[in-house]
Structure formats: structure tokens, C-alpha cells
Amino acid sequence: MKIAYLVNTYPRGSQTFIRREIMALERLGWSIHRFALRSDRAALVDPADIAEDARTEHILQIGAGRLLLSALGWMARHPTGAARAFAMALRCGAKGAGGVPGTGGRLRHMVYLAEAAHLARRCHALRLPHLHAHFGTNSATVAMLCALMGGPAYSFTVHGPEEFDAPVALALGAKADQALFTVAISSFGRSQLYRWASVDTWPRLHVVHCGIEPWRFPEPAALPSGGPHLVAIGRLSEQKGFALLVEAIAKAVPDLPGLHLTLVGDGPLRPQLEEAMARHDLGRHVTLAGWLDEGRVRDSLAAAQALIVPSFAEGLPVVIMEAMAAGRAVIATTIAGVPELVTAETGWLVPAGDAEALAQAIRQLAATPPARLVQMGQAARQRAFERHDIDREAEKLTVLFASKGNP
């Protein structure tokens, strides 16, 4: 009933789903030791994240000198495993050359090797028999190298889209082949693992959804009148498609003069979005709300008739689960795992990269009677609870941990 979790940077405000998963496992009786390569302490705002940071052992916090001494000591006592891990680090480093984010070249993989050796030492000292990593990037690399040099067996969860953007550079197939089991957060994610893992590994590839805590979602607030009022939530980055959403709003406004979008989040594309809003004269129709805490995000959902997700690339956005749990319909692009959750009964699916399709979905939302929108919200709420209850998803993980990936 004892296990370790490993994340590259943890906790982070954008990764509360990992904290929810760990806490759900603890409610089921598991003892979880949290490891992270680094801390994001200065950026934390949520008291729950700050408390989680204090519970996490951050490997790089000990300093380069102590880390190197610890690693060399472990490798000296496990020379055969260290040689295997060194060879794997060289192979993965060769694939990771070329500046692909999260991969690095051979030099960076030597750093991963040192981190892995220290991690193996700590897992041995704490008698931790299994290590589960989140994301198929450098955290899974460290977990794999750790296992090769005498550390605990490992598993990892793949989220996407980053892992699927660079599967060769990340040696994603090798990581899955070496792991006791690998988890994807959607069937689409598992299908991508099928592409890169050995066919013999396929029985050890499983789907476990990210989860929400249903008790945090009371009965939905009444739908606002007028509008339509939309909310979009996410980092203002390339993959989220918010620049295209601004174009879609501009296309829909002539037919819907009361249309308003609240865009929650911040990021590098904010100046471009502001410029596009000014170009289309959307100051009265789009509000850039910036980063909001969890409570104010819920308020933004309550003030909207629907969530809109114009993404170009995703795994399966937690914000969709949360909006559906809050009783709101969803307009989203037909990508990755999104169609596994959003259906015609709970919202509208449109092709990615098509501003006119987004605008047409907004027009359809506006033409939908309020009573029908309430029905869609209730169907969305039920579907989110059925598929993404964190305690139910954690139970799936416990079966995998107990059976070493072969339930």
C-alpha cells in the first residue's frame, strides 16, 4: 500500500488533477510519497498547492554537488544496472537532440541519469516498491533510468499533446515497453501509444481518466439570460486556438449583437489577442479576465451559457469535465479525446481550425431554447460524473498497482 509519485515540476496551478488523484489514492488507503524534480513554489497561489509543495520532496533542491555524490554512490554499488541505464540515456539522448521541448540531447540525459540514481537511492531508503510518473516527458525518462539501475519498477501516465508531438524524440515507445504498465487519459491517447509501443506491450496499456471531485459541484446555477454568454478557459498559448476564437466571435457578432465571451487565463499570446480584438472592434464583446482562482473560475462558468474550447491540440481538457459537472453545455473542436466526452446531447463538436464552424455553433447555441440548454447541461453533468469521478478512476489505478499492470 506504499508507492511513490514523480512529476517534473509539482505542484502547479495547472495540474490540480494530479493532486486530486493522489488524494483519492490516499483515501483508498495508499501511502503516497511525492517526488518532483523541481518546485514551482514562487508561482503558487492556491493554499492547497502551497501545502502540497511542502509535502513534496524536490530532487534538485539538494543542490548539484550533493546530487552528484548521491548518484555516484548509488551507481558504484549497482555497476551493472548503472551501465544499462547509461546506455539507455545515450540512446534516448541521441533521439532527443534537435531542441524538442522536454527531451534534450545526451548531456541533458546525463543529468537525468544522476537524478534517477539519487531517486533510486531515496526509494530504497524509504522502501518504496513502485514509482508512478506523470507525463511521458522527462519524468518518465528519470523513472525508466531509475528502474534500470536498481530502483523500483515504474509506470507512467501519458496526457498529450506534448508526448504525441515528439514520440520519437521522447522515446515514448521504449518507455512504455520498459514500464510495468502505462496509462493514457483517453482512448485516443492509448491509440497513440499503440503506434509506438511493441505489440507485446499493448495488454499493459490502459485508460484511466483524469478526475473531478463531484462533491465540489453543487446543483448548477440558473442559466443567464440574454447574450449568448460564453466562457473559454486556458493558457493563452498556440495550441488553445484562442486567436481563431476571436475571429469566430467577429463572424458571429453581426447576427448576435449581445454576444459576449469571457476568456479566462494568461500566457504569451495575450498581446496578439488584444491586437486582434482591437482590429475587429470587439472591446464590448470579449473580456480578457486573466488568471482566476478556482472559485472565480466557477463563477465565470455560472455566468455563461456554455464553455467554448477552440483548441488545435489537447489530451482531454479537465476544464471540459469541470464545465460539464457545473451543468454547462460545451462547444469544442473534434480533436484527441474530446469526442469521447462531448456528445450531441451535451454540446456541439466542430472541426478544428475552422472559424466559421465555431461561429455557426455559437449561432446554434443562441437559437437553442433555454429549457433545452438546461437539459443539455444536466446530461453533461451526469456524463461527467459517470466518466470522471476521481474516486472511481483512482480505484482503477489501485487495481493496476496491485496487479502490476495485468488486471
UniProtKB/TrEMBL annotation:
InterPro entries: Glycosyltransferase_grp1 (IPR050194). The keyword Transferase applies. The keyword Transferase applies. It comes from the Bacteria. One of its GO terms (molecular function) is glycosyltransferase activity. Pfam families: Glyco_trans_1_4 (PF13692). Keywords: Transferase. This is Glycosyltransferase family 4 protein.
